[in-house]
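Mods, move this if it's the wrong board.
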Amino acid sequence: KLNKEHVDTPEHRQIALEAAHQMIVLLKNEKNLLPLSPGKVKTIALIGPQANATTGLLSNYHGQNTLVNSHSILAGLTNLVGSQVKINYIPALASPDSMDVTSFDDAVAAAKNSDVAIACVGLSNKDESEGHDRVNLTLPGAQEELVEKVFKAQPNTIVVLIDGGPLAIEYIKDNIPAIVEAFYPGELGGDAVADVLFGKVNPSGRLPITVYPADYIKRSYFDMSLRDNGGCTYLHYSGDALWQFGDGLSYTTFTYEWESGSLGERTPSIASSAAARFEDTPLQYTVVVKNTGDMAGGDSVLGFLKSVHQSDAPIRELFDFGRVVLQPGESATVHLTVGPQELSLTDHRGVQSIRGGEVEYEVQVGSLHAKFYVHGPDVELFNLERITARYTERMRSQ
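Not the wrong board. Structure tokens:
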């Protein structure tokens, strides 16, 4: 029987913190501005409407939660650095959608008189929630103007994004030296952001979305075709993205190599009938990952697949992934498998099949590339028309 003692346990809180650590994505880090060090940074200007956000870190769907009230980004930084670093907190805007700029001079002064400025901006459930969609992809209110003024006063500016979807932040991408995407990081999200900013945790998150430019919103979202009019999602978007699905940096560096003698060093040609049985004997690509930097860190190894000559196939598709945590100089192997689902396409009738002929596929894992071919007749995996007809016939006979 479950009772109150089984809710919000220390184990639950540790999972919440670890989840927030792993979801944070480092998007930009020029001149290794991050991680910060209390030995080098003595004053921080912490600015923005999300800097002391509490329930705003929880996104749209959550129960009653009071823990987050003491775990904002401001609280997380204060608890982490203590008296070693002075934090000058200036919200500047009362909320993400505020247009009241009367406190901007205070924010600029704080930035100018600090070693580093951290601007916490983004969205809230007033901007995106159930039944309330955004009408553009840009930062609401005067947040971008705030970031621009802070950056002009303090070149060592870091932007932390709090949001639930893509933000078209062209100015920030082009000018701000360090950008951290925290999404809605949860009840201990403020602690997690502080841990990443000061290098207690090495960021290892990868973007689960495509970040489109601001003018992408011109594409009608009543258009349900993923492929037409420039396409949408990472599978079919053919335009220039601010960041791609799967992007994400680290404070360390990793190298990838195909394992010696493994499939990545060969170019096999496989019968389509055999490819349909990959669930029993899948194609497996083995990658040796090595931490070549000076800091321990996690790395998500993403395997992408591309059908070279099939016009209705995705531009690329994630077929498998693995995650490793490595000490400096340490190596590990990651196995990525291709199954029949990844090789198949579904047509407008709902017929899913591995296409016949001589089809070339490209495999990409980081900077590694490999090829394989599938030849032979079409192999059907699923037929919605046939299943629907059988169901209709069965219902008529009853």
